[in-house]
Every structure is written in C-alpha cells, then in structure tokens.
Amino acid sequence: MQICAAINISLLLLPTLYATYLRSDDMEVVSHCVTQALCEIQCIVQTVICFSKHDTLQRILEELWSCIGKAQQHEEEIYYLYLARCNVFYSSYIAATYATVAVGLIGPLFLPIVHMIFAEYPFNVNRTLVIAIVRAHQIITGHQICAHICMCLFGGLLIWFTAARYECLMAELQRTTDIHMLIVCIEKQLRLKRYAEDVVECFRFMVLFVIAACTFVITVCAITIVTNTPLVAKILFTGITVSLLMYIYMYAWPADHMKEMSLKFSQSVYDLPWYEHTARMQKNLLNVLAYQKPVVLSINCLVPELSLRYYCSYLSNALSFCTALRAMLEETTT
C-alpha cells in the first residue's frame, strides 16, 4: 500500500516537473510548480521514512494506547489538560488544510476558479475520458498530499504525549517515600527516555526535510511576493509562507515542551521533603538530581535543537531575508 502511494504521487510529480520546464519563463507559475513539487517529494520522503520505521512506530503507538488504557485519574487529568492546550490550534490547521485542498481541487469542477494543480502531460489531454482520468488522479493525489501535510500533527501528538508522560511521572515522583518507590520511578524514567528517543528518531529526518523545504519555498515565495506579480498571486504565496511557518511551529512547540518536562523531572527532586528522609535516601535523590540531560529533537550539524528559541531565530532570519531582498530589488529598479 505504501509503495502504491509513493508511485501514485510520483505520477503527479513528473507532470509537475514537466510543467516547470515548459513554463520556465513565468516566475509565478514556476514558483507554484516548485512549491507543489516539494509537497509531492515530501509525501514520498515521509512514505519511505514511515516504511523504514514501521516497527518502531508500531511499538510507539502500542505503548501509547497501553498507557492511555492504564491511566489513573490524575494521569487522565494531565492528558486532558494537554489535549485542551493544543486541540484548537491543531484541529484548525487540519480543517483549514483540507478545506483549502477541497476547494482548490473540486471547486473548479463546479465554480469558475483556477485549478490549483499545475501539471503538463506529454500527450493530448483534451479528450473527455482522458480529462476525467487526469482530474480524478489529481483529486485523489491532492488529498493524499493533504494527509501527508497534516502528518506533522501525528508527530506533534506523539511528542506532546511524551511530555505529558514526563509530567505524570513527576507527579508520581512527588509521592515517593522510600527507596523502592524511587527505584520504580527511575525505571519508568529510563523507559520513558528510550520511548522519547524513539519518537525523536522517527521524526528527526521528517523535520529536517520540512525545514529545508520550507526554507527553499519561503525563498521562492519571497521573490514572488516582492516582484511585480498580481495581488492574487501575492496573497496566495503569503498564505503558503504562513502555512509553512506554522508547519515548523507545530513541531517546535511540543519539542520545546518535551525538553522542558524531561529536564523538570530531575529538578522536581527539589520539591521533595528530602530533609525528612534517611541519609541513604538523600544520596539517591542527589543522584537523580545530578542527571539532568533533557531529551531534545535535533539533527547533527544542522539543527542543534528544535525549540521555540530556534523557531524564533528561524522566523527572524526569514523576515530579515525578505526585507533585504526587497531592498535589493528596489535598488535595482531605481
């Protein structure tokens, strides 16, 4: 099924690249085609990654459902708090993405609007049957691409869940009264750390591709926006840029919180009444306090740490680039 999905998207990627070649003299069309091609390549890349990480993802999901099924009341309350924190933002992104794709793909069949997919074929597509097949393929593939675009929500969900488990474990640590309970907490913390590392490992390269693709697309969109293009095109590419920045944010936000929670687990020992315990217990608590290595989502030599600080830096650099590009173009035109 995954191989068929990748082949199906490839059948649209090739006409997209062909359209880029044929319309290379039109900057607006080229920008649209490049953005579309990157979305299609992203789907193929994510399909390959999910296929290679199938066993790990399956194990992660099984543990997720197991934890939810065995959750105690205070843990359920923590899960509900996390769900209430991000459900509006993430669900709005899903609704907006699917609504945009549905209008762009199905709308031209009933409304006088331009089709959102740019594709050129090396054969005659003016026959009714061929047009029907091509349009059906584009609609199916477009919704498939939309589902892959929303896959950041899946990664974000797993990262949020990991952070919530750290908070549940912190609550359990606060009730520790003897060495045996502390050992149980440490064992759970080590298992949770391995779980968090598995989640990070599954989505690390997806995040890398998203950041690279966003950087390239934002550059192309910025050039299109600051040049002499129609207002409708500028609004379209501004929307694409904003959606891509939101895409990165939906990874950076939970990753930053997971880092904070994994660090707070060790620091929460401060809140224990350690002075009421025995000297041996105090020594063990000190060992827990000494281990303060957080779990971070990072890519070696490229992204040192995906966090809100990194996102703000990325956003600042993107805006600075747009400002510099506009100034350069104004100088060349005067």
Structure summarized in a few sentences:
With 334 residues, the protein is mostly helical. The protein is built from 10 helices and no strands.
Could you characterize the architecture of this molecule?
This is Odorant receptor. InterPro entries: 7tm6_olfct_rcpt. The protein has one domain (2-333). It has ten helices and no strands. The protein has helices at residues 2-22, 27-52, 54-69, 73-110, 128-149, 151-174, 179-226, 231-267, 279-290, 308-333. The protein is elongated. The termini are far apart.
Average of the residue pLDDT scores: 80
- Overall structural class, as computed from helix and strand content, comes to mainly alpha
Strands, count: 0
Order of helices and strands: HHHHHHHHHH
The general outline is elongated
Number of H- or I-type helical stretches: 10
Task: Report the portion of residues in β strands.
Answer: under 5%
Q: How many domains is the backbone divided into?
A: 1
- Tell me the Rg in angstroms: 24 Å
Low-confidence stretches: none
As a percent range, the share of helical residues equals over 70%
Sheet bearing the most strands, described? none
Straight-line distance between termini: 56 Å
Give me some keywords for this one.
mainly alpha, single chain, 334 residues, 0% strand
